[in-house]
Amino acid sequence: MNQILKAQSHVLSRRSFLMTVGGLGIAVSFGTLADLAYGATMAAVAEGEFRPNAWITIGGDGTVSIIAPAVEMGQGITTTLPLLVAEELDADWNRVRVVQAPSDAETYGNPGFYGVQLTGGSESTRGYHALLRLTGAQTRLILLAGAAGMLNVPVRELNTEPHRVLHPSSGRSLDYGEIAAKAVLPDPLPQAAETDLKPSDRWRYIGSRTIGRIDVPSKVNGTAIFGIDVQLPGMLYGAVLRAPVQDEGPQTIDDAEARKVPGVTHIVPLPYGVGIIGETVEATKRAKDLLNVTWSTTSRVRSYTSQRLLDEYRAVGRDLEQQGLSAHANGDAEAAITGAARVIEVDYMSDHVAHATMEPMNATALVTGDRVEIWAPTQGPTGTQGFAAEVVGTTPDKVKVNTTFVGGGFGRKAEADFIVDAVSLAKAVQGRPVKVIWSREDDVRYDKFRPLEAQHVRVGLDAEGNIIGWRHRIVADSIFARTLPPVFEQAGGHDDVVTEGAKFNYAVPAHQIEYLRQDNGLAIGFWFAVGVGYTRFAIECVIDEIAAARDMDPLALRLELLKDQPRARKVIETVAQMADWDRARNGQALGLAYSDAFGSHCAQVAEVSLNRETGVIRVHKVWCAIDPGVAIQPLHIEAMMMTGITNGTGHALFEQINVIDGEVQESNFDTYRVIRMSEAPEIEVAVVPTPGSPFGGIGQAGLPPTGPAIANAVARLTGGVRLRHYPFTPERVKAALDS
Predict the structure, then answer these.
(1) Burial level of 333, CB count in 10 A (0-12/13-18/19+)?
(2) Helix 634-653, helix 706-718: angle, nearest 10
(3) What gap in Å lies between CA 177 and CA 191, rounded to an integer?
């Protein structure tokens, strides 16, 4: 399917333009029109407006409205993607406004995600860039054709500068607004192909460091609308009491005291809990606390205890007779290891982690008969339509999704449980919108955590210390088995998100990756960098262990293993220079790690110190060099690296979810430990693009190297003490020091 979508994006025909005209959206103004207008809809084409396709509308005043197909959750994508269109259109950026795409996967679906509307996986730029650049280029050709008719000259005599079509020989020109007011859509439409795209030496916007993010001003002045900010006439509020163990439901409900709370209007039994609807948030919260519910006791998740299971996962990984599904095989790694002069065999593990987004789960829904309208900070409008339709018993085309700003997503808001809450309660009070806001405690306890996992890595070295075989076994549950069963089944039970990042570009003659799925019932989900966050932890720490075994500088070893990878070498050499790698530190040490995940090359050096008495690690500074291929917005890339590094530091040192007998032990930031501002390292980022390379993903590229860089620094500081279990809690650090 991906191949079909990619092929379709190369040439946009007149039919494809006309077939996709129309649709409503949420308007966002920027540039010289800096005020956000969330809640406004994109009206039908008015007199004097020109809409050559579903992505672009040009007003008679010259304002160019561009659809932003991806969801803004702090990663700057609603600037990046429209900027690609504006570049090829030769639009004046100060006369552009962005319109959030409506829920319409047929028109605005991401080619990188099988055509659905979903933001995640660092796939937005990689999925949309070809389509959007061609859309801008073809619209420019349409404007040129329209201007040729108005000026009565051959189109070949015309060219463009920002927002104008020029006829150099006569000195005449037309503003895009003038063309929009009078142009006739040419028939046939001019065709745009890759040869019509601007060469990089003519780019005005791509690579610029002067263009700010369009979402930032509203977030600073407080006018930005997140899901939690939505207010509608006649709105009610909702809360849901969930079972303490997943997959249990209410058996008996005593709601007598809850119904006495002033402002409570409805108590709604649900298959998975009890819903409360009221006039205020406070009323629903009070009533929720007063419910007396007897829960079922049949869920197999009641036997889920994370630490016990992690020990089992480690044992499974070590049992080499137990074959896993092959995720990658280059040569016979085990045969090579069997004949090796030396074998390094280690286990790396990661606990569950929660998303803990700053904006907790929330959604507002209005149900009227078989029609549903939703206002939500969702990463997946297409999934939202499907789940809402299922709750109401209607079809997805009758569900309208208004996507707001997302106050932190990290994969959590690609889920639909909070959507189902709002729609289920709104169904009970048809005609009135209901807003559901999860408490922080519910947000942590009922999250879809990153998988619990254990990795067993076996590496064979020859007599000279060269790697001759690498076997990597990943033991974890599947995300796709729950979220995308057809993809999981089509892959024969393999989950390439869980094993993502295990395939590397180091020069190893025999490399084997195995996936050993463990199904214990707990729903797990996508989390910032997902599999790459832990697979690179194991890989990059093992590289340092090999370097130590060879008595070799870990920087030199990586450069040796990447001798045919110029982009990889460039970021490693750059970050080493930034950090002054060879300079001795007093009481501190440097650690290095590298990743090529998401199509971007990223190397980091972490400077750490360690209190041996308490086991507390302090990360003082992290240097980062990132090669995204084409750097569309370098300043934004720097900001995303800082986000990834800060998050990566916190998750490596602190973040941990413990499940005992199916019940999550953590509930809020007092028990689920996240990084504090005082603990955040100083960060220095260098963006080192490679012209002519593919567009890489950036949203998650900064996190994977951070943890292993910290662990490798601790090993250098302590003479070889290895930290192999995320997070590096003080207790685990002290145990490693004492072992």
Answers:
(1) buried
(2) 50
(3) 22
Output Rg (C-alpha) for the chain, integer angstroms. 27
> Strand, helix or coil at 304?
coil
Please give the DSSP secondary-structure letter assigned to residue 229: G
Residue 173 token pair: 């020109």
Task: Specify the CATH number of the domain 323-352+449-738.
Answer: 3.30.365.10
- The alpha carbon dihedral of 140, 142, 143, 145 has a sign of positive
DSSP result, 128-146? HHHHHHHHHHHHHHHHHHH
pLDDT at 26: 19
Q: Is CATH 3.30.450.20 the classification given to domain 230-298+361-437? A: no
The two structure tokens encoding residue 621: 């500074």
* 682-687 vs 616-627, strand pairing mode: parallel
**Strand pairing partners for 57?**
65
Tokens linked to 708: 């292993």
pLDDT for the residue numbered 187: 82
Instruction: Flag residues of the chain having pLDDT under 70.
Output: 1-52
Q: Residue 537's closest CA among 399, 728, 404?
A: 728
Q: Tens digits of per-residue pLDDT, 406-448?
A: 999 999 999 999 999 999 999 999 999 999 999 999 999 999 9
pTM exceeding the 0.85 threshold for the entire prediction: yes
- Helix/strand/coil for 231: coil
pLDDT of the residue at 49: 60
Per-residue model confidence (pLDDT) at position 44: 34
**What is d(CA 710, CA 87) in angstroms, rounded to the nearest whole number?**
40
What pLDDT sits at residue 17? 37
DSSP state of 694: P
Give the per-residue pLDDT at 271: 97
Burial class (CB in 10 A: 0-12, 13-18, 19+), 508: buried
- How far is the C-alpha of 81 from the C-alpha of 94, rounded, in Å? 16
Q: What are phi and psi of 462, to 5 degrees?
A: -85, -175
CATH number of 2-219, picked from 3.30.300.180, 3.30.365.10, 3.90.1150.10, 3.30.1490.20 = 3.30.365.10
Kindly write down the DSSP assignment for every residue of 339-404, as one continuous string: T-SEEEEEEEEE-B-----SS-SEEEEEEETTEEEEEE--S-HHHHHHHHHHHHTS-GGGEEEEE-
Domains 230-298+361-437 and 323-352+449-738 share a fold: yes
pLDDT of residue 189: 83
In the chain, where the domains are located: 2-219, 230-298+361-437, 323-352+449-738
| pLDDT at site 5 | 26
Strand ranges (E), 554-667: 589-595, 601-611, 616-627, 659-660, 663-664
Beta carbons within 8 Å of 634's beta carbon, 6+ residues apart? 207, 209, 687, 689
The confidence score (pLDDT) of residue 570 equals 98
SS3 content of the chain, % helix, strand, coil (to 5): 35, 25, 40
pLDDT of residue 9: 30
Distances (CA, A) of 127 to 131, 387, 531: 8, 24, 20
Cα–Cα distance between 95 and 32 in angstroms, integer?
7
Q: How far is CA 362 from the centre of its chain?
A: 19
Fill in the DSSP letter of residue 587: S
The pair of three-digit structure tokens given for residue 395, joined into one six-digit string: 């079809």
DSSP one-letter code for 10: S
State the DSSP string of 494-540. --TTTSTT-S--S--SSEEEEEEE---S--B---TTHHHHHHHHHHH
